[in-house]
Amino acid sequence: MKFEIALNVHWVGKIDWELRKFHGEEYSTHRGSSYNSFLVKDEKVALIDTVWLPFAKEFVDNLAGEIDLNKIDFVIANHAEMDHSGALPELMRRIPDKPVYCTANGVKSLKGHYHQDWNFQVVKTGDKLSLGKKELVFIEAPMLHWPDTMIEYLTGDAILFSNDAFGQHIASEHMFNDLVVQSELFDEAIKYYANILTPFSLMVTRKINEVVALNLPVNAICPSHGVIWRDNPLQIAHKYLEWAADYQENQITIIYDTMWNGTRKLAESIAKGIKEKDDAVTVKLYNISRSDINDVVTEVFKSKAILLGSPTINKGILCAMASLIDMVTGLKFKNKKAAAFGCYGWSGESVKILSEHLTKAGFELVNDGLKAMWQPGDAEMTQAFEYGKEMAGKL
Ligand code: FEO
Question: How many other β-carbons are positioned within 10 Å of the β-carbon of residue 6?
Fold first, then answer.
């Protein structure tokens, strides 16, 4: 399968309809994904990125059906992560002398992954590669989201090849942004940002402003996953600027785990209290051990405050909650408030532990938390309700 993006610019990647987990088991991809590769033909021919390793042979065979591989003049490796570089060994086995254009860090990563000494050509921001009438202009984009990442701009067609930035994990037979369900597109785009790019928000803002300042026309943005932004392509860049600016909505998310439903009851009573005080705020509840962790992280991203609840077990917290905290800590969310709650039977450390983790993760603690011994009775449920009201008043 291939399709045209502009005259002599074609998508030649792979749509992965089956993918349900990405980055090992770390990231859920409910809607599959795609590994986008682009073939740009002018007097010279450039191939931009490849696909994930399991599809390497299929990809290169298909590519060979589109073009004599020896007619590819330049191989562009924007990013060494294996979902984009995985077919390079198979491709370079067939055209071993062709130059591979990447950043200096790209050489390190590609050599680290494949232990091959390909004909690497290191490029830096501002370097240009003439294809004939058109040029590829390279822009290094370190930490968007790896040190090696780069993007490029194709003059003439005014296409920005943005690699992971602006991507979404979507498999679709409609590979343009104006052809897919908009709510699904933006759900996946924000999930992608929340789970992958949040820690690099400063770099996101800096790089987008740098590219915008060049005042170049942009007819399309081609990320390396999901659909191509051709209808109002800069809308996703503007969304990224919004998301990178310590994004939050008027939402409070309550995330808990529970053994015998005591902590769940507290969560629901706190939610009622919040709504009693502030009916405009969106309150969402998730049992973390029964929810998709990446979807919950996306809700954390959208929240102005979160409440974490766990009963005490073995002087600690339940393991699904520990896993969430680890993920949230790594993502370095900013400008969010938080508090903790939980049931206990005797030692009762969970609320203190949760509070400490939240502080370490960069959340501003609103209070010392709410504890309830054994199963919450009427008094504890009222206390949780009032606690919710008090929280809402402080947010
Ligand atoms: Fe889509 Fe960072 O690889």
Answer: 16
pLDDT at 1 over 90: no
Tell me which residues have their CB closer than 6 angstroms to ligand 1: 79, 81, 83-84, 145-146, 164, 224-225
Supply the residue whose CA is at minimum distance from atom 1 of ligand 1.
164
Is this prediction's pTM over 0.85?
yes
Question: Whose CA is closest to atom 2 on ligand 1?
Answer: 81
Q: What are the Cα distances from residue 153, in Å, to 13, 126, 214?
A: 19, 10, 11
Ligand 1 centroid to 261 CA: how many Å?
A: 39
Stretch (H or E) spanning 383: helix 378-394
Instruction: List, for residues 332-351, the tens digit of each pLDDT value.
Output: 999 999 999 999 999 999 99
- One-letter amino acid at 346 equals W
d(CA 353, CA 350): 5
Q: Tokens representing 237?
A: 């860049």
Q: Report whether 80 contacts 148 (CB < 8 A).
A: yes
Taking the mean position of all CA atoms in its chain, how far away is CA 70? 35
Nearest CA to ligand 1 atom 3: 81
- Kindly compute the dihedral angle of the four CA atoms of residues 107, 110, 115, 120, in this order, to the nearest 10 degrees: -40
Model pLDDT for residues 200-256, shown as the tens digit of each residue: 999 999 999 999 998 999 999 999 999 999 999 999 999 999 999 999 999 999 999
Instruction: Give the CA distances from residue 4 to residues 39, 228, 234, 365, in Å, rounded to whole numbers and listed in that order.
Output: 10, 11, 20, 52
